[in-house]
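[step 3/7] fold_predict: job queued, chain A
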Amino acid sequence: MSHTHMISLDAAALRGWPLPSHEGDKEDRGHVLVLGGSREMPGAVILAATAALRAGAGKLTIATGASVAQLVALAMPEARVIGLRETADGGFTHEAMAELDPLADKVSAILIGPGMQDEIGTAELVRALLPRLAGASVILDACAMGIILNPDLPDDAPPFRFEQAVIVTPHAGEMAHLTGNTKEEIGANPQAMATGAAQTWHAVVALKGARTIISAPNGDMWQHEGGNVGLASSGSGDVLAGIIAGLAARGATLEQASCWGVALHALAGERLAARMGMLGYLARELPDEISSLMAQAALG
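[step 4/7] structure written:
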């Protein structure tokens, strides 16, 4: 799909942009790697990994801190779990690159960031990984988006720009951190903010909010209005990032994975709100809705 104007992500738009279909084995549906987690936030990778599988990814590997790897493995029996050495600030040490490098040629999509801490250490790791991920779809969430600020480089370093386009998934607060604008400025004109960032960073930007804007580096734009306030809760963004990663692993383009991920996430929230009320449903309940939503005839 090629667009020169804003496209609203309603049922008709999604129906006209069907996801890749696969009738083969798990290898055909791609291998997703979720890299993240920390002593304080091990649940983030569990949420994201569960969502990636619910979105249809065929194989799953999780790379997380050694201190929580066994816990994550018990919670995710479907996954291979790799324990990485951790820094005192909650990131991963330089030795993590040696553990991750053999996977670079095997994964279809990689999600980096859920539950990670230590922005400087994470930026160093992402910077080392990106050149090895030319054949994979890359999704950066949470702390991993901090590479855009070059926190690991001198202050006079040139502005960061991705060589190969990736997906970034900021909410307004994260966008403020990454751009230097205020949350109020971003909320007043999210379309311009997302479009400018997409072109400056060479990334597909999914600027999350009640009205989510997805902007591609070439200027293509989509918007989604829907969901409910219950989605603005702890762990919900990890689920969204996992859905996007799972769809990308299956072969969706960065733009399609982002658009479908945003729409499915919102629809899952609407389903839960209809059953349980607008507030109080949990992020871990969202992934269970994804498979049936994708199967609905209305969504293709």
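[step 5/7] annotate
The chain has a mean pLDDT of 93.
The two ends are 16 Å apart (CA to CA).
exit 0
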